[in-house]
Amino acid sequence: xxxxxxxxxxxxxxxxxxxxxxxxxxxxxxxxxxxxxxxxxxxxxxxxxxxxxxxxxxxxxxxxxxxxxxxxxxxxxxxxxxxxxxxxxxxxxxxxxxxxxxxxxxxxxxxxxxxxxxxxxxxxxxxxxxxxxxxxxxxxxxxxxxxxxxxxxxxxxxxxxxxxxxxxxxxxxxxxxxxxxxxxxxxxxxxxxxxxxxxxxxxxxxxxxxxxxxxxxxxxxxxxxxxxxxxxxxxxxxxxxxxxxxxxxxxxxxxxxxxxxxxxxxxxxxxxxxxxxxxxxxxxxxxxxxxxxxxxxxxxxxxxxxxxxxxxxxxxxxxx
Length: 320
What we know:
Blueprint: H1 6-27, E1 59-63, H2 68-80, E2 87-90, E3 92-94, E4 99-106, E5 109-111, H3 112-119, E6 131-134, E7 139-142, H4 145-154, H5 173-188, H6 190-195, H7 200-220, H8 234-243, H9 246-253, H10 265-275, H11 286-296, H12 314-317
Parallel strand pairs: 1-2
Antiparallel strand pairs: 1-6, 3-4, 4-5, 6-7
């Protein structure tokens, strides 16, 4: 079969490139260098005993299976044993709806965006997960994952099944903060900086920084169990939810293709060890992760083909 005439190729490429940049500017707003700039979360309240007090059965956590930022909160909720204290609402990614849809109508809202506007009339910002919701005041407490996991770790110990577990001990908080800064920029957001880059230079820089950090952590884990020593911390949870998706989606779909997790013996064993902690595996829904990333991120996968699950047997075969 002959390839299409050059004018068809050139015309199609020009049209697709223009449409791609338009869609990406909405999906992943860039700076003037084509680097993805993740917007800041807008709801940043704490459980402080005033407007928002720590009470069982008062708060709901809205999450999506595929979202690594929401996954953090599921892992901490599970490890602390807060399943009977904080309800989970699993929302569904729907590209046709332009975001997350609710499993059932709430306050006449069918989408998470509508629920955001119900709580804050006139709201025009991003309607993201995770989102911690107060059922008493019908308001959004917090939608910043880094802060929600701190809240879950510290503020509901009275009701937790594992109050003795502290994922942010005082003597490790400086080290945790340093790792969080590094991991956020180069790994958690780094994979998105690769996948959502809109110039070659932006992609090359993000790709280099990502693998420099993974190389560094792999070397570190040859001498200690976790990022801050022998104790699991919030920094590890933040890293885990990105790494568990690495071979599944980021390596191919986001062009993070220098190496796979399986090429890092220490990182692979580290992810397996966290995965095998009590009930953490139940927070990992791999088919939905594949479906949402490949099915909903149309600009990165315009054909809409969903790949088969890769071999994830290492999660249950290593360490533990």
